[in-house]
Amino acid sequence: MLIGELSRRTGVSARSLRYYEAQGLLEPRRGTNGYRAYDEDAVASVRKIRALLRAGLSTEVIRQVLPCARGGQVGFDWCAELRAILDGELADLDEQIEALRRSRGALVGLLAER
């Protein structure tokens, strides 16, 4: 399928699809005319990419874990590498949340002094 059809089927702009390709997340074939041609499983791959982006993962991390998420289904194959990377990302988020809580507490303290 061409990029326009993939865009329609996934609700993702062609510009974003080209970005995913540039980041190594999608690998279309090129026709003799130079047009991108996507396999049917690209629809599921784009949905997985979007789910991982919504979870706050960077495209660099997604590139690492996407091989565990290949295939025609929208779900994930929980290979050990994927689980370890996502556990690490979750730990990083927990640290950021705690730092924000401390900052918020300090700010509340400053405002209480007024």
TrEMBL record:
Organism: Streptomyces badius
Pfam family of the protein (one): MerR_1
Signal peptide annotation: none
Record keywords: DNA-binding
Top-level taxon: Bacteria
Gene3D superfamilies with a match to the protein in the record: 1.10.1660.10
Protein's name in the database: MerR family transcriptional regulator
Keyword field contains Magnesium: no
Domain HTH merR-type: 1-68
